Here is the input.
Amino acid sequence: MQKLRQSGTLIGFVLIIAFFSFQLPDTFLTARNLLNISQQLSMLAVVAATMTIVMVMNDFDLSVGSMASLSGIVAATLFVNEYSIWAGIGAALLVGLVGGLFNGILVSVVGILPFVATLGTLTVFSGAAFLLSDGKTIFGRDIPKSFSDFSRSGIEVGSIKIPMLTITAGFVIFICWYIL
Here is the structure.
């Protein structure tokens, strides 16, 4: 029974793959579809891998999603205002760093429980993203072509093009694995 409980997620994953492979035998397990799935899940995979490190330390951060949103809004807003790609990326990373430091100070210096602290900052970061974007969608056409080209680019391996987003996510996951 213990083995079943420990392997439940893996068993569920295998069952899902088997189900879709049976339902869509000509398309589901193709390299093109698997690469498309990996590209679509790349940001989620990066967040999940980095959150694993936090959870291994017996903590958690509820504000990760809203911080990712705020960082993205900061970069996109700078892009719309014709700042360079590096200025947008740098500002997004700086916002993420400051938000993480703020959470860290609330938890380790002030002594607020991580659940309470990150629940509060989740709201603050979401509100800041909403205010910064004025509640409006920033469309892809407003993002510099050279920036969006990165997500569309990849490395050719034979007849398959491995997307850069997949490669980047794999690199981050490898670093997290190495840390753990």
